[in-house]
Design a protein that fits this description.
Layout lengths: L12 E5 H5 L6 E4 L6 E4 L11 E5 H7 L13 E4 L8 E4 L10
Parallel strand pairs: 1-3
Antiparallel strand pairs: 1-4, 2-3, 2-5, 5-6
Length: 104
């Protein structure tokens, strides 16, 4: 494995779509959340993700499964990245802010 490039330590907990582990799906979408700095890794399936389909694993575990994730080590908080196939280059953009309801 290449040198560790993330500011977060290798053992930081991240959210991972279960299909990446159980079915060997490829990582198609990554978000680095603005509100808490957490990382999310999703497969290429579209639509909402069921809470039961999310696992918590270490960031190092994700990198060991797919070293192309190292290219996203400098992804700023509040940004996301995606690709159209496992061999496609990563594309990046600022994430849209999530509307908040101050009445809740």
């Amino acid at each position: 494995m290449e040198k560790w490039k993330f500011a977060d330590p290798p053992n930081v907990a991240v959210f991972l779509d279960r299909g990446i582990i159980t079915r060997g799906d490829w990582i198609a979408y990554v978000s680095h959340d603005d509100d808490d700095g957490s990382w999310q890794f999703h497969n290429s399936e579209t639509g909402p993700v069921d809470e039961g389909d999310i696992m918590i694993v270490s960031l190092q575990n994700v990198v060991q499964r797919d070293e192309s994730i190292l290219a996203l080590a400098d992804l700023p908080e509040g940004w996301h990245a995606w690709r159209t196939s496992k061999s496609s280059p990563w594309q990046r953009a600022r994430s849209r802010p999530v509307p908040s309801n101050d009445n809740e």
